[in-house]
Design a protein that fits this description.
The protein is mainly alpha-helical. The chain contains 20 helices and no strands.
Length: about 325
C-alpha cells in the first residue's frame, strides 16, 4: 500500500524536519512509485542533514544514473566511496558511469581496484576486459583475462570472454579452444554454443555453425538471437528459405520490435522472390534502425528490384555514408547511376 505509506511519511517529515532517516524512507517510496525527481529532492535533503549518510548517497547515485545524469551520479558515488572504500558495488557503478562519460582510463581504474580488493573474483576481470573489447582493443582485453587465469581462476564466464576476445583478435583456434573449455565446464550453456557458432561462421565452417546454433536453440527455446542468426545464415546462402522465414518469425515473436530481426525477415522474403513482402519488412526495419548500413543496403536492393531506382540509390548512398568501407554498395551506386 505505497500510497498510504507515502501519505504517512509526508506527514511525518512535516513534524520531524531534521530526521534524515524519514527523508531517506520517503525517497525510497517516491522511487518505488516512479517519482524520481521527488525521490532525488528528499534524498538530497537527507544528505544535507547527514552528509555521510551512505545509503542516501548511493540512492542518489542510482537515481541520477536512471535520470541519465552521469556527472551527478558520479559525484554521489564518489562521496559514498570515501565513506565505504571497500564497497564493490560502488566501484562497479563508477566503472559503468565513467565508461558512459567516455572516461575510459577512469573506468578501467575502478575494475583494477576491484581486482586488487579480491583477485580471485572473476567478475571484475570480465567487466574490465569487456570495456576494452567495446573499445576494439582485444589485446588489452586478453592481457586482463590472462591475469585472471594466472590467479588460478577457472570460470565459464572468463573462458567465454577469452573466446570472444581471441575471436576479435583474429585468433580463431584460440577462440574455439576457450569456447570449448567453457562448454566442458557448462555443457548446457546455450550462450557458449551460440558464440561458438559465430566463430565457426567467421571461419566459413557453416555446417559446424549451424550445428551449434541448433544446440543453443535446443537448450534455450526462447533464444531469439540464435533463431535469427540461423535464419539469416540460410537467407544469406539462399537455402532452406522456408525454414529461414519460420526461424526468424520465432525470433520476432520473442522480440517484436527488434529491427535486426525484422531486417532478416525482409531479406529472407527478398531471397524467396517475395519482393512486396520484403519491402514492407525492410522499410519497417529501417524505421527502427535508421543508421544500420546493412538494413539500408537490403532496402536499396528491394527498391531496385521493384524498379524504384531513385529510392534504391538513396538507400545505398545512406548505407555507404554510414559505412564507407562497403565496396559492394559503392559498386551498386556506380553501376546504377
Amino acid at each position: 500500500k505505497m500510497g498510504e505509506a507515502l501519505s504517512i511519511y509526508e506527514k511525518l517529515v512535516e513534524k520531524e524536519k531534521n530526521s534524515s532517516l524519514l527523508y531517506f524512507n520517503l525517497g525510497v517510496i517516491y522511487s518505488r512509485l516512479g517519482k524520481l525527481d521527488s525521490a532525488i529532492a528528499v534524498l538530497n535533503k537527507a544528505v544535507s542533514i547527514e552528509p555521510d549518510y551512505l545509503e542516501a548517497l548511493i540512492g542518489l547515485g542510482v537515481l541520477y544514473e536512471m535520470k541519465d545524469n552521469p556527472p551527478q551520479a558520479i559525484a554521489n558515488f564518489e562521496r559514498a566511496l570515501k565513506i565505504d572504500p571497500l564497497n564493490a558495488n560502488i566501484y562497479y557503478s563508477l566503472g559503468r558511469l565513467y565508461y558512459r562519460a567516455k572516461k575510459i582510463d577512469d573506468a578501467a581504474g575502478q575494475y583494477e581496484l576491484l581486482v586488487k580488493l579480491n583477485p580471485k573474483d572473476p567478475a571484475p576481470y570480465i567487466e574490465w576486459a569487456g570495456l576494452y573489447i567495446n573499445q576494439k582493443r582485444p589485446k588489452d582485453a586478453l592481457n586482463i583475462l590472462n591475469k585472471a587465469l594466472s590467479e588460478g581462476i577457472d570460470d565459464t564466464e572468463v573462458y567465454l570472454a577469452l573466446g570472444f576476445a581471441y575471436g576479435e583478435d583474429s585468433k580463431s583456434n584460440e577462440a574455439i579452444k576457450y569456447y570449448n573449455l567453457a562448454l566442458e565446464m557448462s555443457p548446457d550453456d546455450a550462450r557458449a554454443h551460440f558464440y561458438l557458432a559465430i566463430q565457426y561462421d567467421k571461419m566459413k565452417e557453416r555446417e559446424m555453425a549451424r550445428l551449434e546454433l541448433k544446440k543453443a536453440i535446443g537448450l534455450e527455446p526462447k533464444f531469439s538471437d540464435a533463431y535469427n542468426y540461423l535464419g539469416y545464415m540460410y537467407a544469406e546462402e539462399g537455402v532452406n528459405l522456408d525454414e529461414a522465414i519460420t526461424l526468424i518469425r520465432k525470433a520476432i515473436e520473442i522480440e517484436p520490435s527488434n529491427g535486426a530481426y525484422i531486417d532478416s525477415l525482409g531479406w529472407a522474403y527478398f531471397q524467396s522472390g517475395m519482393t512486396d513482402e520484403a519491402l514492407i519488412e525492410l522499410e519497417k526495419a529501417a524505421g527502427l534502425e535508421p543508421d544500420d548500413p546493412t538494413i539500408n543496403d537490403h532496402l536499396g536492393d528491394a527498391y531496385f528490384k521493384k524498379g524504384l531506382k531513385v529510392k534504391a540509390r538513396s538507400a545505398w548512398e545512406k548505407s555507404l555514408k554510414i559505412n564507407p568501407k562497403q565496396e559492394g554498395v559503392r559498386n551498386k551506386i556506380k553501376k546504377n547511376r
